[in-house]
Automatic annotation (TrEMBL):
Protein's recorded name: Secreted protein
Native species: Kitasatospora phosalacinea
Pfam family membership, one: HAD_SAK_2
Recorded superkingdom: Bacteria
Classification of source organism: Bacteria, Bacillati, Actinomycetota, Actinomycetes, Kitasatosporales
Length: 174
């Protein structure tokens, strides 16, 4: 017998900005992981990557506990599963494959049409540091289901406030 429950919402995750903060004042970026810990988890070849130390491993448990289906939506593509997911304690996640920028209208992020196509009307949340008004308008015009486009400040990465907004949206009426 098939379940009559709607599928869990999708959660599209960008890496640079939301999970790896950047762009703040020099020397003011958080460092949550040591090079030693990165080597322990990923191996020696990942050591020396200057941004991985900024990943907050606590975010993985928060993401895993959410009532949603996470999907990477990042230029890291499949490397997110080999470099980022293990540091967060997440299993490999599906990856939204990069498309052709020509598919996105002027001013709309290249990911936006791909997310809407991939979601196929299913509710989704998108965490990214490059979401703008054109993306919101495009999703509103082309996506039949509920959507939360949450712009994350790239200087801070995901904050408690971001998680609160996301959790409330996911647990609220869809």
């Amino acid at each position: 017998m098939e379940s009559l429950e709607p599928p869990l919402p999708l959660l599209y995750l960008d890496v640079d900005g939301p999970l790896i903060p950047f762009g703040g004042p020099p020397g003011r970026q958080p460092e949550h992981l040591t090079e030693r810990r990165i080597r322990e988890v990923l191996g020696a070849e990942a050591a020396g990557h200057p941004l991985l130390t900024r990943i907050d491993p606590r975010h993985g448990a928060r993401i895993a506990a959410l009532p949603c289906r996470p999907v990477w939506a990042t230029t890291w593509q499949h490397e997110a599963n080999t470099c980022v997911a293990p540091l967060l304690g997440l299993p490999p996640l599906p990856v939204l494959e990069e498309g052709d920028d020509a598919d996105a209208p002027y001013g709309v992020h290249w990911k936006t049409p791909l997310l809407v196509e991939h979601a196929e009307g299913t509710a989704f949340a998108w965490l990214d540091d490059e979401i703008g008004a054109a993306d919101r308008a495009w999703v509103a015009a082309h996506h039949a289901g509920p959507a939360l486009l949450l712009r994350v400040d790239p200087r801070l990465g995901l904050t408690e406030e971001d998680f609160t907004v996301l959790e409330e949206w996911l647990r609220g009426p869809a």
